[in-house]
Amino acid sequence: MTDGWDWRRPGDTRAPAGQPGPGTPPAGTPASTGARGDAPSPWWSDALADPWRDPYAPTAVVVPAPGPDGAAEPEPVTDPDAGGRPRLRLLLLIPLITALLAGALGGALGYAFAVHGGAGRGATLGAPAEAPALAQRKPESLAGVAERVLPSVVTVRVTSLGGTSEGSGFIVSPEGHVITNDHVVSGSVGKASVIFNDGSSAPATVVGQDPESDIAVIKVSRTGLKPVEFGDSDSLAVGDPVLAIGSPLSLANTVTAGIVSALDRTMQAGEPGGPTRYYAAIQTDAAVNHGNSGGPLVDGAGRVVGVNSTIKSLVADGQEAGNIGLAFAIPINQAKRITQDIIGTGKARRTVIGAQVGGPNAGTGDGVRLQQVEPSGPAAGAGLRAGDVVLRLNGRPMSEPTDLIALVRKFAPGSVVTVEYRRGANRQNTSVTLAADAK
What we know:
The chain is α+β, with helices and mostly antiparallel strands. It has 6 helices and 21 strands. The protein is elongated and about 155 Å long.
Protein backbone atom coordinates (compact mmCIF):
# COMPACT_ATOMS: atom_id res chain seq x y z
CA MET A 1 0.00 0.00 0.00
CA THR A 2 1.35 3.38 -0.87
CA ASP A 3 0.32 6.78 0.41
CA GLY A 4 2.45 8.99 -1.81
CA TRP A 5 5.22 9.35 0.77
CA ASP A 6 8.69 7.99 0.23
CA TRP A 7 9.26 5.72 3.24
CA ARG A 8 12.78 4.53 2.31
CA ARG A 9 15.34 3.99 4.94
CA PRO A 10 18.23 6.39 5.17
CA GLY A 11 20.76 5.55 2.50
CA ASP A 12 18.24 3.52 0.58
CA THR A 13 18.88 4.24 -3.11
CA ARG A 14 15.89 2.42 -4.35
CA ALA A 15 13.54 4.50 -6.40
CA PRO A 16 10.00 4.91 -5.47
CA ALA A 17 7.61 2.31 -6.62
CA GLY A 18 7.38 2.10 -10.36
CA GLN A 19 10.67 3.89 -10.95
CA PRO A 20 14.03 2.18 -11.51
CA GLY A 21 16.58 3.01 -8.98
CA PRO A 22 20.27 3.53 -9.37
CA GLY A 23 22.25 0.31 -9.67
CA THR A 24 19.19 -1.57 -10.77
CA PRO A 25 19.89 -3.65 -13.84
CA PRO A 26 17.93 -2.77 -16.83
CA ALA A 27 14.73 -4.53 -17.42
CA GLY A 28 15.08 -7.81 -19.23
CA THR A 29 18.42 -8.73 -17.78
CA PRO A 30 18.69 -11.99 -15.82
CA ALA A 31 19.29 -10.20 -12.53
CA SER A 32 16.30 -7.90 -12.89
CA THR A 33 13.76 -10.66 -12.98
CA GLY A 34 12.65 -12.57 -9.93
CA ALA A 35 11.49 -16.07 -9.75
CA ARG A 36 8.23 -15.09 -11.41
CA GLY A 37 9.79 -12.52 -13.71
CA ASP A 38 7.71 -9.68 -12.15
CA ALA A 39 9.76 -8.64 -9.12
CA PRO A 40 13.11 -7.13 -8.74
CA SER A 41 16.04 -9.41 -7.64
CA PRO A 42 16.77 -9.50 -3.92
CA TRP A 43 20.46 -9.07 -4.79
CA TRP A 44 21.79 -5.86 -6.32
CA SER A 45 25.21 -4.95 -7.44
CA ASP A 46 25.90 -3.30 -4.06
CA ALA A 47 23.94 -5.72 -1.96
CA LEU A 48 27.00 -6.89 -0.05
CA ALA A 49 27.69 -3.30 1.01
CA ASP A 50 24.12 -2.64 2.10
CA PRO A 51 24.09 -2.25 5.90
CA TRP A 52 20.30 -2.31 5.97
CA ARG A 53 19.89 -5.48 3.97
CA ASP A 54 17.52 -7.98 5.55
CA PRO A 55 19.59 -11.08 6.30
CA TYR A 56 16.48 -13.19 6.02
CA ALA A 57 15.71 -12.03 2.48
CA PRO A 58 15.63 -14.91 -0.04
CA THR A 59 18.56 -15.43 -2.36
CA ALA A 60 18.53 -16.10 -6.05
CA VAL A 61 20.82 -18.08 -8.31
CA VAL A 62 21.71 -16.27 -11.49
CA VAL A 63 21.29 -18.59 -14.47
CA PRO A 64 22.86 -17.68 -17.77
CA ALA A 65 20.45 -16.67 -20.47
CA PRO A 66 19.50 -19.32 -23.00
CA GLY A 67 21.52 -19.53 -26.17
CA PRO A 68 20.32 -18.45 -29.49
CA ASP A 69 18.52 -21.73 -30.05
CA GLY A 70 16.71 -21.36 -26.74
CA ALA A 71 18.44 -24.35 -24.99
CA ALA A 72 20.51 -23.66 -21.89
CA GLU A 73 23.61 -25.83 -21.71
CA PRO A 74 24.89 -26.53 -18.19
CA GLU A 75 28.43 -25.60 -17.41
CA PRO A 76 30.67 -28.68 -17.61
CA VAL A 77 31.81 -29.97 -14.17
CA THR A 78 35.26 -31.48 -13.75
CA ASP A 79 35.92 -34.28 -11.11
CA PRO A 80 38.95 -33.16 -9.10
CA ASP A 81 40.06 -36.84 -8.59
CA ALA A 82 39.54 -37.88 -12.19
CA GLY A 83 43.17 -37.18 -13.19
CA GLY A 84 44.85 -38.81 -10.09
CA ARG A 85 43.27 -42.27 -9.92
CA PRO A 86 44.53 -43.68 -13.20
CA ARG A 87 48.02 -42.47 -12.30
CA LEU A 88 47.87 -44.23 -8.87
CA ARG A 89 46.64 -47.47 -10.39
CA LEU A 90 49.44 -47.32 -12.88
CA LEU A 91 52.04 -46.84 -10.16
CA LEU A 92 50.75 -49.93 -8.31
CA LEU A 93 50.44 -52.04 -11.42
CA ILE A 94 53.99 -51.52 -12.68
CA PRO A 95 55.85 -53.14 -9.67
CA LEU A 96 53.34 -55.99 -9.58
CA ILE A 97 53.96 -56.83 -13.21
CA THR A 98 57.73 -56.47 -12.66
CA ALA A 99 57.66 -58.93 -9.72
CA LEU A 100 55.67 -61.49 -11.69
CA LEU A 101 58.06 -61.26 -14.61
CA ALA A 102 61.09 -61.58 -12.31
CA GLY A 103 59.63 -64.68 -10.59
CA ALA A 104 58.85 -66.31 -13.90
CA LEU A 105 62.33 -65.56 -15.21
CA GLY A 106 63.97 -66.92 -12.03
CA GLY A 107 61.97 -70.14 -12.18
CA ALA A 108 62.83 -70.62 -15.84
CA LEU A 109 66.54 -70.08 -15.18
CA GLY A 110 66.51 -72.44 -12.17
CA TYR A 111 64.83 -75.16 -14.20
CA ALA A 112 67.30 -74.68 -17.02
CA PHE A 113 70.30 -74.92 -14.67
CA ALA A 114 68.84 -78.00 -12.97
CA VAL A 115 68.26 -79.78 -16.27
CA HIS A 116 71.62 -78.92 -17.80
CA GLY A 117 73.46 -79.48 -14.49
CA GLY A 118 72.08 -82.99 -14.04
CA ALA A 119 70.05 -82.39 -10.85
CA GLY A 120 67.52 -85.11 -10.17
CA ARG A 121 69.47 -87.63 -12.23
CA GLY A 122 71.70 -88.93 -9.38
CA ALA A 123 74.73 -86.99 -10.57
CA THR A 124 77.74 -86.64 -8.27
CA LEU A 125 77.94 -83.17 -6.81
CA GLY A 126 81.67 -83.29 -6.37
CA ALA A 127 84.47 -85.63 -5.39
CA PRO A 128 85.25 -85.70 -1.65
CA ALA A 129 88.37 -83.86 -0.67
CA GLU A 130 91.29 -85.83 0.68
CA ALA A 131 91.04 -86.29 4.43
CA PRO A 132 93.50 -84.29 6.52
CA ALA A 133 96.25 -86.11 8.34
CA LEU A 134 94.35 -86.16 11.65
CA ALA A 135 91.30 -87.75 9.98
CA GLN A 136 93.21 -90.48 8.16
CA ARG A 137 92.73 -93.86 9.79
CA LYS A 138 96.24 -95.07 10.41
CA PRO A 139 96.72 -98.76 11.30
CA GLU A 140 97.62 -97.83 14.88
CA SER A 141 94.52 -95.65 15.34
CA LEU A 142 91.49 -97.00 17.17
CA ALA A 143 89.61 -97.18 13.88
CA GLY A 144 92.52 -99.07 12.32
CA VAL A 145 92.64 -101.48 15.26
CA ALA A 146 88.89 -102.10 15.10
CA GLU A 147 89.08 -102.76 11.37
CA ARG A 148 91.73 -105.43 11.90
CA VAL A 149 90.08 -107.19 14.83
CA LEU A 150 86.39 -107.17 13.83
CA PRO A 151 86.70 -110.03 11.26
CA SER A 152 87.91 -112.28 14.10
CA VAL A 153 85.01 -111.51 16.47
CA VAL A 154 81.81 -113.56 16.35
CA THR A 155 78.36 -113.70 17.93
CA VAL A 156 77.64 -116.96 19.78
CA ARG A 157 74.11 -118.34 20.02
CA VAL A 158 73.31 -121.40 22.08
CA THR A 159 70.06 -123.30 22.49
CA SER A 160 69.32 -124.49 26.01
CA LEU A 161 66.33 -125.79 27.92
CA GLY A 162 65.52 -122.24 28.99
CA GLY A 163 65.60 -120.86 25.44
CA THR A 164 68.36 -119.23 23.43
CA SER A 165 71.26 -117.37 24.98
CA GLU A 166 73.59 -115.05 23.13
CA GLY A 167 77.08 -113.77 23.75
CA SER A 168 80.31 -112.99 21.97
CA GLY A 169 83.52 -114.81 21.17
CA PHE A 170 86.70 -114.57 19.10
CA ILE A 171 88.57 -116.92 16.80
CA VAL A 172 91.86 -118.18 18.24
CA SER A 173 92.99 -120.80 15.70
CA PRO A 174 92.78 -121.41 11.95
CA GLU A 175 91.01 -124.67 12.78
CA GLY A 176 87.98 -122.73 14.03
CA HIS A 177 88.42 -122.70 17.81
CA VAL A 178 86.55 -119.85 19.48
CA ILE A 179 86.95 -118.59 23.05
CA THR A 180 83.85 -117.45 24.91
CA ASN A 181 82.53 -117.41 28.49
CA ASP A 182 81.33 -120.54 30.22
CA HIS A 183 78.15 -118.78 31.31
CA VAL A 184 77.32 -118.13 27.63
CA VAL A 185 77.21 -121.85 26.75
CA SER A 186 76.23 -123.32 30.14
CA GLY A 187 73.03 -125.34 29.92
CA SER A 188 73.58 -126.01 26.22
CA VAL A 189 71.78 -129.00 24.75
CA GLY A 190 74.38 -129.32 22.01
CA LYS A 191 73.00 -126.86 19.48
CA ALA A 192 75.13 -123.77 18.98
CA SER A 193 75.87 -121.45 16.11
CA VAL A 194 78.36 -118.72 15.30
CA ILE A 195 77.57 -115.56 13.31
CA PHE A 196 80.58 -113.98 11.66
CA ASN A 197 81.41 -110.36 11.05
CA ASP A 198 80.10 -110.51 7.47
CA GLY A 199 76.70 -111.80 8.60
CA SER A 200 77.22 -115.42 7.58
CA SER A 201 76.73 -118.19 10.12
CA ALA A 202 77.89 -121.72 10.81
CA PRO A 203 77.00 -124.44 13.33
CA ALA A 204 79.35 -124.91 16.28
CA THR A 205 80.08 -127.58 18.87
CA VAL A 206 81.20 -127.14 22.46
CA VAL A 207 84.74 -128.48 22.92
CA GLY A 208 85.02 -127.97 26.68
CA GLN A 209 84.22 -125.67 29.59
CA ASP A 210 85.79 -124.54 32.86
CA PRO A 211 83.00 -123.14 35.07
CA GLU A 212 85.29 -121.86 37.83
CA SER A 213 87.34 -119.70 35.46
CA ASP A 214 84.31 -118.88 33.24
CA ILE A 215 86.12 -119.96 30.07
CA ALA A 216 84.62 -122.18 27.34
CA VAL A 217 85.87 -123.27 23.91
CA ILE A 218 83.64 -123.98 20.91
CA LYS A 219 84.57 -124.93 17.35
CA VAL A 220 83.20 -124.15 13.90
CA SER A 221 83.94 -125.99 10.68
CA ARG A 222 85.05 -123.32 8.25
CA THR A 223 88.26 -122.58 6.40
CA GLY A 224 89.94 -119.25 5.82
CA LEU A 225 89.33 -117.99 9.35
CA LYS A 226 91.49 -115.20 10.75
CA PRO A 227 92.61 -115.76 14.36
CA VAL A 228 93.25 -112.85 16.71
CA GLU A 229 96.68 -111.79 17.91
CA PHE A 230 97.36 -112.36 21.61
CA GLY A 231 98.86 -109.71 23.85
CA ASP A 232 100.47 -109.98 27.27
CA SER A 233 98.03 -109.15 30.05
CA ASP A 234 100.88 -109.06 32.60
CA SER A 235 102.42 -106.06 30.81
CA LEU A 236 99.30 -103.87 31.03
CA ALA A 237 99.37 -100.63 32.98
CA VAL A 238 96.55 -98.58 34.41
CA GLY A 239 95.57 -95.95 31.84
CA ASP A 240 96.35 -98.05 28.74
CA PRO A 241 93.71 -97.57 25.99
CA VAL A 242 91.54 -100.60 25.24
CA LEU A 243 88.60 -101.56 23.02
CA ALA A 244 85.73 -103.89 23.93
CA ILE A 245 84.28 -105.66 20.90
CA GLY A 246 81.21 -107.88 20.73
CA SER A 247 77.42 -108.01 20.46
CA PRO A 248 75.94 -106.11 23.40
CA LEU A 249 72.16 -106.39 23.55
CA SER A 250 72.29 -108.31 20.22
CA LEU A 251 73.97 -105.38 18.44
CA ALA A 252 76.64 -107.24 16.49
CA ASN A 253 80.02 -105.77 15.61
CA THR A 254 79.88 -103.13 18.33
CA VAL A 255 83.12 -101.42 19.37
CA THR A 256 83.49 -99.34 22.54
CA ALA A 257 86.62 -97.63 23.84
CA GLY A 258 88.03 -96.94 27.27
CA ILE A 259 91.10 -97.42 29.38
CA VAL A 260 92.43 -99.94 31.85
CA SER A 261 90.97 -98.66 35.11
CA ALA A 262 92.61 -101.16 37.47
CA LEU A 263 94.53 -104.42 37.47
CA ASP A 264 94.16 -107.57 39.57
CA ARG A 265 90.68 -106.51 40.70
CA THR A 266 89.65 -109.64 42.60
CA MET A 267 86.06 -110.67 41.91
CA GLN A 268 83.76 -113.41 43.13
CA ALA A 269 80.77 -114.12 40.94
CA GLY A 270 78.29 -116.83 40.07
CA GLU A 271 74.62 -117.65 39.77
CA PRO A 272 72.66 -119.12 42.70
CA GLY A 273 73.15 -122.88 42.68
CA GLY A 274 76.00 -122.62 40.19
CA PRO A 275 79.76 -122.62 40.54
CA THR A 276 81.58 -119.78 42.27
CA ARG A 277 83.90 -117.98 39.89
CA TYR A 278 86.98 -116.05 40.95
CA TYR A 279 88.72 -113.39 38.88
CA ALA A 280 91.85 -111.34 39.30
CA ALA A 281 90.37 -109.20 36.59
CA ILE A 282 91.30 -106.32 34.34
CA GLN A 283 88.94 -103.46 35.16
CA THR A 284 87.94 -101.12 32.33
CA ASP A 285 85.54 -98.25 31.76
CA ALA A 286 84.85 -99.32 28.16
CA ALA A 287 81.09 -99.81 27.80
CA VAL A 288 80.22 -103.49 28.32
CA ASN A 289 76.66 -104.85 28.49
CA HIS A 290 74.84 -108.16 28.28
CA GLY A 291 75.95 -109.85 25.07
CA ASN A 292 79.54 -108.59 25.37
CA SER A 293 80.32 -111.65 27.48
CA GLY A 294 83.07 -113.73 25.89
CA GLY A 295 84.18 -110.96 23.53
CA PRO A 296 87.74 -109.67 23.38
CA LEU A 297 89.27 -106.74 25.24
CA VAL A 298 91.89 -105.36 22.84
CA ASP A 299 94.90 -103.16 23.52
CA GLY A 300 96.07 -100.20 21.44
CA ALA A 301 98.08 -102.51 19.15
CA GLY A 302 95.07 -104.67 18.27
CA ARG A 303 96.10 -107.59 20.49
CA VAL A 304 93.65 -109.39 22.76
CA VAL A 305 94.55 -108.83 26.41
CA GLY A 306 91.35 -110.04 28.10
CA VAL A 307 87.99 -111.79 27.82
CA ASN A 308 85.05 -109.57 28.80
CA SER A 309 83.16 -111.43 31.47
CA THR A 310 81.20 -109.45 34.03
CA ILE A 311 80.03 -105.97 35.01
CA LYS A 312 79.12 -104.11 38.16
CA SER A 313 75.70 -102.53 38.37
CA LEU A 314 73.53 -100.59 40.81
CA VAL A 315 70.26 -102.37 39.98
CA ALA A 316 68.37 -104.47 42.49
CA ASP A 317 68.09 -108.23 42.23
CA GLY A 318 65.94 -109.35 39.34
CA GLN A 319 66.43 -106.18 37.33
CA GLU A 320 68.36 -105.90 34.10
CA ALA A 321 71.91 -104.66 34.69
CA GLY A 322 73.54 -102.09 32.42
CA ASN A 323 76.87 -100.43 31.95
CA ILE A 324 77.96 -97.91 34.56
CA GLY A 325 81.62 -97.82 33.53
CA LEU A 326 82.73 -100.80 35.66
CA ALA A 327 83.47 -103.86 33.54
CA PHE A 328 85.85 -106.74 34.16
CA ALA A 329 87.78 -109.05 31.87
CA ILE A 330 89.65 -112.29 32.50
CA PRO A 331 93.36 -111.72 31.76
CA ILE A 332 94.24 -113.29 28.43
CA ASN A 333 97.30 -115.08 29.83
CA GLN A 334 94.96 -117.01 32.13
CA ALA A 335 92.31 -117.53 29.42
CA LYS A 336 94.89 -118.67 26.88
CA ARG A 337 96.34 -121.24 29.26
CA ILE A 338 92.91 -122.65 30.11
CA THR A 339 91.99 -122.77 26.42
CA GLN A 340 95.11 -124.77 25.61
CA ASP A 341 94.25 -127.22 28.40
CA ILE A 342 90.70 -127.65 27.12
CA ILE A 343 91.77 -128.15 23.50
CA GLY A 344 94.56 -130.54 24.53
CA THR A 345 92.88 -132.58 27.28
CA GLY A 346 89.22 -131.57 27.31
CA LYS A 347 89.49 -129.96 30.75
CA ALA A 348 91.42 -127.20 32.48
CA ARG A 349 93.83 -127.43 35.37
CA ARG A 350 93.14 -125.34 38.43
CA THR A 351 96.05 -123.64 40.18
CA VAL A 352 96.24 -124.05 43.97
CA ILE A 353 98.52 -122.99 46.85
CA GLY A 354 97.77 -125.98 49.10
CA ALA A 355 95.96 -124.07 51.86
CA GLN A 356 92.42 -123.15 52.81
CA VAL A 357 91.14 -119.80 53.94
CA GLY A 358 87.86 -118.94 55.58
CA GLY A 359 86.13 -119.24 58.88
CA PRO A 360 86.00 -116.61 61.64
CA ASN A 361 88.42 -113.72 61.26
CA ALA A 362 89.66 -115.08 57.92
CA GLY A 363 89.87 -111.56 56.54
CA THR A 364 91.60 -109.42 59.12
CA GLY A 365 91.65 -106.31 56.93
CA ASP A 366 95.42 -106.52 57.03
CA GLY A 367 96.03 -109.94 55.53
CA VAL A 368 94.27 -113.29 55.11
CA ARG A 369 94.53 -115.96 57.80
CA LEU A 370 95.26 -119.54 56.69
CA GLN A 371 92.68 -121.85 58.24
CA GLN A 372 94.29 -125.10 57.12
CA VAL A 373 97.50 -126.05 55.31
CA GLU A 374 97.81 -129.36 53.41
CA PRO A 375 100.78 -131.33 54.69
CA SER A 376 102.21 -132.09 51.26
CA GLY A 377 101.01 -129.00 49.45
CA PRO A 378 102.96 -126.03 48.06
CA ALA A 379 102.28 -123.81 51.12
CA ALA A 380 103.56 -126.42 53.57
CA GLY A 381 106.61 -126.97 51.39
CA ALA A 382 107.38 -123.23 51.68
CA GLY A 383 107.12 -123.33 55.51
CA LEU A 384 103.64 -121.85 55.94
CA ARG A 385 101.43 -123.08 58.81
CA ALA A 386 97.79 -122.85 59.81
CA GLY A 387 97.18 -119.56 61.59
CA ASP A 388 99.73 -117.65 59.54
CA VAL A 389 98.40 -114.40 58.05
CA VAL A 390 99.28 -113.87 54.39
CA LEU A 391 99.92 -110.14 53.92
CA ARG A 392 101.02 -109.95 50.25
CA LEU A 393 101.25 -112.22 47.23
CA ASN A 394 103.80 -111.02 44.68
CA GLY A 395 103.50 -107.58 46.25
CA ARG A 396 99.69 -107.49 46.00
CA PRO A 397 98.14 -106.72 49.44
CA MET A 398 95.58 -109.20 50.81
CA SER A 399 92.50 -108.17 52.77
CA GLU A 400 89.81 -110.80 51.95
CA PRO A 401 89.92 -114.56 51.29
CA THR A 402 88.72 -113.86 47.74
CA ASP A 403 91.94 -111.94 47.09
CA LEU A 404 94.17 -114.95 47.73
CA ILE A 405 92.01 -117.43 45.77
CA ALA A 406 91.61 -115.17 42.72
CA LEU A 407 95.27 -114.18 42.54
CA VAL A 408 96.51 -117.77 42.89
CA ARG A 409 94.25 -118.93 40.03
CA LYS A 410 95.58 -116.19 37.82
CA PHE A 411 98.97 -117.93 37.66
CA ALA A 412 99.79 -121.14 35.83
CA PRO A 413 100.71 -124.27 37.75
CA GLY A 414 104.47 -124.30 38.39
CA SER A 415 104.69 -120.53 38.81
CA VAL A 416 106.79 -119.29 41.71
CA VAL A 417 105.29 -116.49 43.77
CA THR A 418 106.58 -114.48 46.71
CA VAL A 419 104.48 -114.59 49.89
CA GLU A 420 104.84 -112.12 52.74
CA TYR A 421 103.17 -113.35 55.92
CA ARG A 422 102.95 -112.67 59.64
CA ARG A 423 103.36 -115.26 62.34
CA GLY A 424 102.67 -113.81 65.73
CA ALA A 425 104.49 -110.49 65.78
CA ASN A 426 107.06 -111.47 63.17
CA ARG A 427 106.91 -110.69 59.46
CA GLN A 428 108.57 -113.15 57.09
CA ASN A 429 108.88 -113.83 53.33
CA THR A 430 108.90 -117.12 51.48
CA SER A 431 108.65 -118.40 47.91
CA VAL A 432 105.85 -120.78 46.97
CA THR A 433 105.77 -122.94 43.84
CA LEU A 434 102.11 -123.20 42.87
CA ALA A 435 100.70 -126.53 41.71
CA ALA A 436 97.77 -127.91 39.75
CA ASP A 437 94.79 -129.31 41.59
CA ALA A 438 94.84 -133.08 41.77
CA LYS A 439 91.25 -133.14 40.39
